[in-house]
Amino acid sequence: MNLLPVLDLGLAILVLAVAGWTIAAREAFGAVVGYVAYGLLLSIVWVRLYAPDVALTEAAIGSGVTGVLLVTSGARLRRAGGVEAAAPGLSQRVLAAALAVLVAAALAAVVLMLPEPPPTLAPEAREGLAATGLGNPVTAVLIAYRSFDTMLEKVVLLLAVVGVWSVASDRFWGGAPAPLGRARPQGALIFLDQALVPLGILVGIHIFWVGADEPGGAFQGGAILAAMWMIVMIARLTGPPRVGARWLRLALIAGPAVFLAVGLAGLGIAGNFFAYPAGFAKPIILFIEAFMVLTIAVTLPMLVAGPPRRSPEP
Amino acid sequence: MNASTLAGLVGAGLVGLGLYGLIVNPQPLRKILAFNLIGSGVFLMFGIVARRGAAAGFPFDPVPQAMVITGIVVAFAASALSVALILRLYEETGTATLDSDPAAKPPDDGARDT
Amino acid sequence: MIETPPALAATAGGSLLVLAILLPCAGILLSFALGGRFAERIALGLTPIGLAIALAVSVLVWRSGAPVVTNIAGLPPPLGIALRADGISCVMLVTAALVIAGAALYARASFATPAGVSEARAPLAFWIMLQAIWAALTILFVGGDLFNLYVALELLTFAAVPLVCLAGKPETLVAALRYLLFALFGSVFCLLGAALLYGAYGTLDIVLLAERVRPQPAVWLAAGLMTAGLLAKTALFPLHLWLPPAHAGAPPAASAVLSGLVVKGSFFLTVRLWFSVLPALPGGAAEAALGTLGAAAILFGSVLALRQPRLKLLIAYSTLAQIGYLFLIFPLASGAHPWIADGWGGGIMQTLSHAFAKAAMFMAAGLLAESLGHDRIAEFAGAGRAMPATVFALGLGGLSLMGLPPSGGFAAKWMLLRASVAAGHWVWAVVMLAGGLLAAGYVYRILAPALSDGVVVLKSPPQRSREGVALALALVAVALGFAPQSFFDFLQIGRAAATAALP
């Protein structure tokens, strides 16, 4: 008997159960922990769907970095109690449940009725791959075929940073966000940092580099580098930088700026905006991705660190 | 019932669960969690479409997978922005709810860490 | 190599579309890196260039009588992303450029970096968000790919939400958070719809989808989910809860852009969805439902506006009502009937005239609040004599909202009325007339105290230049009332292609 369908079914049930726990948990902290576990389970589902790039991204960003964000903010909110919001009445719950069931059922029905043979762009992706010199079609979609989306998404990330910073008090502008982690970190954490972080940096760079031809890429590599920086900050070996720091500003725009500049230059060099000249596509793509890695590695921790909460030093 | 159909049904369930949580949970932080659930359900939808699109020697259609990767990053940014607003609201008023009249109870000034 | 079919072929001038998007993007990056006072200078410097590009694209579309198309990187859909500017894209691009330019000029006084400081929080955030809104709207108006449009929606949200709570007051934080939750709900359901459409047809390009879409459950569900999401973002009744506190609580320059342009972005996308992607869907049930919600919004918003004691909230509720007029375009311009040209022209004209009129009104309200120190309407007595230009701008904007000639609002409502009568849909006509009366009511409520006798003490007189900007925008709203028939013919460019894709 084939074991895989049974495992798949078990995984599906587990994912739904943990998601249900996340919604139904009484304490916010329990819900957040459940969400992190849920993210890791999802990564396994992505592997089963033959999507290793997505699995890496989900594990690193969807579960990992989002988890750090929610845990640190949940801890802050928990620390002071505060007035509890009014729980919704039974009628509201019933209506919400009815709506949710309706939407889920409609979606499930559509899933079961998806067309055969399924439409796909894989042949077109395969056709264009040779011109880009890449081996990983997902990277080709991200940086070559639909590069415009990716460039815009980098701008969206930058806007999120500006938005997060904008809620600061005026008197803290230019200063640094509050430190992550506890004031007196345990020795074990510091040791872990010193052992893990150099390795993690290598792994991150490797995953970015190899993503041109194998699963991986700028987002995944950048997320790992971001995680390394966050670990270092959580152990209080270094603090978050001041938001006015020139190097920080440049690092945050490096990815989209290089992407935009290369895209503009494409008109002169290759006849179209965001086009790559034949034969040079792969090096240019890696060049752009390198700056994207830098930006992602810096952006994700700054989004977790939050708005400035310390006065800028004179 | 192959893996992609099963995953699609899970995605549908996640969208439903997340929608319920978004409407019913009063705390904004829980709403953000619920929104992330909906998002991951939507990504699973893209994922099964990608898996079903296996062709030309690839075991998947890369276009939807790229969209999911973009979507995961944008969803994280959305969570970060929401959390920043929630924390700021909490610092200003001492509560973190969307009730229309937040009590203007100022917390410790400066909100220094530990 | 597959030949590019004619519908997808790029046309001359397509590079302008890419430049139109990249210009504010570059502005964002430069403003963030250079910081300080540069952000303001960059924003102000780019607005005339953006306006020039918008006008150039419009001239190209006008001359050729067909949309301007470009395929990014020369790669046509379905694998690549296309940008297309048809008649309505052009008028929206020009409108956005003008309103953003006006808001930028108006905001110079409130968001200048103070002397002696290299950089301040609110100014930097404002100038970057303004350019981001501009970039996002540009993509929404010319984008040809549904996922690209989703990313633009997210950019718009991330830029608009922090503007609401820029001043930092707790109630604005609540309003911003609520806005963000509604907006995120909207985007994620748009994305879900896109997933279903891709699963059914293997592309997210608007033109290709229009050719391939057939009435089937996946399409109906996708349409429903995407529309629900877009309605939440456009604050159409009953998903309107977030708008009044958000638009009233934002700084006046931001409110002008939020009410004038940002809600039009998701509305424009709804129009694109139903008129360019889904015309193959039969029947008018969905369009009638949208029209009904619009009618409810007109009545609900106007009645609530009448009851507001504070000016900014009144104007915000009026936005709810005027958004309702926009959704009458769905029942009145769909299908193949003789009245759809009127319905289409009326709906688009309402979009444009409301953008200018509402921006002018929020700016005037901001000047009043600054000079008087409050925005309680009951205590405006004598304001008309103390700040005549400001109150005049408020009145002109109100003229357009009421739908009195001469104004763009009148032209819009007149065409919509004509279409409803021709279609035999008396309900819309009655609701529009009622809405006009109610609008007259709340405009009167604002102006009567302001124009009455009384003495006000101005904390500070309003700056002439800022009054001038508000007045200029209000005058544009009025001037739109004189739009010739050729203007409405221009709006039809690109429409024939959409309906020609019907099976």
Give an account of the 3D structure.
The complex is a heterotrimer of chains A (314), B (114) and C (503). Chain A is mainly α and 314 residues long. Chain A has three domains: 1-85; 91-119; 121-314, no CATH class. Chain A is built from eleven helices and no strands. Chain A has helices at 4-24, 28-48, 52-79, 90-112, 122-132, 137-145, 147-166, 187-210, 218-234, 246-270, 281-305. The termini of chain A are far apart. Chain B has a single domain (7-93), classed as Helix Hairpins (Orthogonal Bundle). Chain B has helices at residues 3-24, 28-52, 62-93. In chain B, helix 1 runs antiparallel to helix 2 (28-52) and helix 2 packs antiparallel against helix 3. Chain B starts with a helix and ends in a 21-residue tail after the last helix. Chain C has 503 residues and is mainly α. Chain C has a domain at 283-498. Chain C has a two-stranded antiparallel ribbon with strand order 1-2. Chain C is globular. Chain C starts with 13 loop residues before the first helix and ends with a helix. Chains in contact: A-B, A-C, B-C. The interface between B and C is medium-sized, with 35 and 29 residues.
**What is the strand content of chain B?**
under 5%
What's the total number of strands of chain A? 0
Q: How many separate domains make up the residues of chain B?
A: 1
Number of helical regions of chain B? 3
Q: What's the number of structural domains of chain A?
A: 3
Name the helicity range of chain A.
over 70%
Q: The biggest beta sheet of chain B, please?
A: none
CA-to-CA gap between the ends of chain B? 52 Å
Q: What are the salient characteristics of this protein?
A:
heterotrimer; A: 314 residues; mainly alpha; 3 domains; 11 helices; 0% strand; C: 503 residues; two-stranded antiparallel sheet; 73% helix; 2% strand; globular
How does the SSE layout of this entry go?
The complex is a heterotrimer of chains A (314), B (114) and C (503).
Chain A: H1 4-24, H2 28-48, H3 52-79, H4 90-112, H5 122-132, H6 137-145, H7 147-166, H8 187-210, H9 218-234, H10 246-270, H11 281-305
Chain B: H1 3-24, H2 28-52, H3 62-93
Chain C: H1 14-34, H2 38-64, E1 68-71, E2 82-85, H3 87-107, H4 121-142, H5 146-164, H6 170-201, H7 206-212, H8 217-234, H9 243-249, H10 252-277, H11 285-306, H12 311-326, H13 329-333, H14 340-372, H15 383-386, H16 388-402, H17 408-423, H18 426-451, H19 464-479, H20 485-491, H21 495-500
Antiparallel strand pairs in C: 1-2
Helix pairs in contact in C: 1-2, 1-4, 2-3, 3-4, 3-10, 3-14, 3-19, 4-5, 4-10, 5-6, 5-10, 6-8, 6-9, 7-10, 8-10, 9-10, 9-12, 10-14, 11-12, 11-18, 12-14, 12-18, 14-16, 14-17, 14-19, 16-18, 16-19, 17-18
